[in-house]
From TrEMBL:
Pfam families: Asp_Glu_race. This is Asp/Glu racemase. It comes from Stereocaulon virgatum. The lineage of its organism: Eukaryota, Fungi, Dikarya, Ascomycota, Pezizomycotina. It comes from the Eukaryota. Belongs to the HyuE racemase family. PANTHER family: PROTEIN DCG1 (PTHR28047:SF5). InterPro entries: Asp/Glu/hydantoin_racemase, Hydantoin_racemase-like, Iso_Racemase_Enz_sf.
């Protein structure tokens, strides 16, 4: 069996952001994996809200479809509940994951490993993400009941003003 072929997708149009992903990914030095990097062909240069994410998903999907047969897994490199994750899953049974979902799932797996009741939170770059990320954790990843126990919330400048903090 050959190496696992992973397509890493930056869904915005910022090529320098895609280029900045290469070195840390390649430094992982996984012998059984190869990586292809793709930048959004059109859409927005930076994803700053749900509308930007929707625009970028629509712009990226046609470019991604030809890559489905040639790759084994797909990583959406945008720290948001990016709609491209679920959209791409409707076109392939192969693994599709966003870095937001991956980080939350990893945090959940690490909770309580030392025998204490622990919680996790998210630190973000802007107040617009306070509601978006918090709601995504509570509604689509954990569910409200589990989130109330383990999720401390989202912190960023201005979160308190929009009600999205922990």
């Amino acid at each position: 069996m050959g190496p696992i072929r992973i397509l890493i997708i930056n869904p915005n149009t910022n090529q320098s952001m895609t280029d900045s992903l290469r070195e840390p990914v390649e430094r992982l030095d996984y012998n059984n994996s190869t990586y292809t990097f793709l930048t959004g062909p059109s859409g927005v240069p930076s994803i700053n809200n749900e509308s930007d994410a929707a625009i970028s998903a629509t712009a990226c999907l046609p470019t991604l479809l030809p890559h489905l047969p040639t790759h084994d897994a797909f990583l959406i490199a945008c720290y948001s509940p990016h709609p491209l994750v679920s959209l791409l899953k409707t076109h392939t049974a192969k693994p599709v994951l966003g870095i937001f979902e991956a980080s939350v799932q990893t945090a959940i797996q690490l909770l309580g490993q030392n025998g204490t009741e622990e919680r996790f939170g998210i630190v973000s770059t802007g107040r617009q993400w306070c509601w978006i990320l918090g709601d995504a954790v509570r509604e689509s990843i954990l569910g409200a009941e589990r989130a109330a126990v383990v999720f401390a919330g989202v912190e960023s400048w201005g979160c308190e003003e929009v009600g999205g903090g922990g």
